[in-house]
Amino acid sequence: MLKKPNKERRKYPRIESIILTAFNYFDQKEYERRQGIARTLNISGNGILIESGCPFNLHSILEITLSLGENHITLSGEVRRAEINETGHYLLGITFINTTPETQKYLLDFIS
């Protein structure tokens, strides 16, 4: 029996992109604060995959600033995937949360 090709299930397609990404992290009780930069591996209208030197637990909330051309946008995101790659860096799959319609439109216009 022949298999049907997998249908894309994502609402927004991912594009490979290298974008300067800065992050801020505050744990729920603000015992810990971390700031840093990361490398964006791919981005879509509702999430981002970054490579970071810092580990994060699943469900951590990050404030992410993306440099898109000459503009910067800041989004909040939840870590939904976390793993270590072969170079010892952390790959973090982050879903954007509480995104305003204006920011969402700007992001979608930039990546399309």
Automatic annotation (TrEMBL):
Signal peptide residues on this chain, from the entry's feature table: none
Origin superkingdom: Bacteria
GO molecular function, one term: cyclic-di-GMP binding
Residue ranges of every copy of the PilZ domain listed in the record: 8-111
Name of the protein: PilZ domain-containing protein
Native organism: Candidatus Schekmanbacteria bacterium GWA2_38_11
